[in-house]
Amino acid sequence: MSSTGWYVTNEEIIRVGRFQNAKHVTDGLRLEAEHQGVICTATINHLEMAEDSLILLRHILLQYYREEMQIVANLDIELPKA
Fold it and tell me: Residue 1: pLDDT band by 50, 70, 90 thresholds?
């Protein structure tokens, strides 16, 4: 729960959120979704996936900019692990 008392579940973000961005950051790939005007983030770290796969995944996901998160969450993408 945030300091404002607002709490949202992963399921709700997937159900009504919109995909905003996939940013390559120091610790991995940061996914951003917009939910009721608020940007929610999650990070896939380098330990879970090889660097090249993170870059490829970012390029794939950016094709879904502003799409419903439910579409993004249901993608079936198979990439090599670290």
Answer: very low
Q: pLDDT (tens digit, 9 = 90+) per residue, 56-69?
A: 999 999 999 999 99
Place of tokens 């879904």: 64
- Taking CA atoms, 8 is separated from 14, 34, 51, 53, in Å, by 10, 12, 30, 29
Nearest Cα residue to 57 out of 43, 40, 41: 43
- The CA distance from 13 to 36, in Å, is 9
Q: Provide the whole-model pTM.
A: 0.82
3-class secondary structure, 67? coil
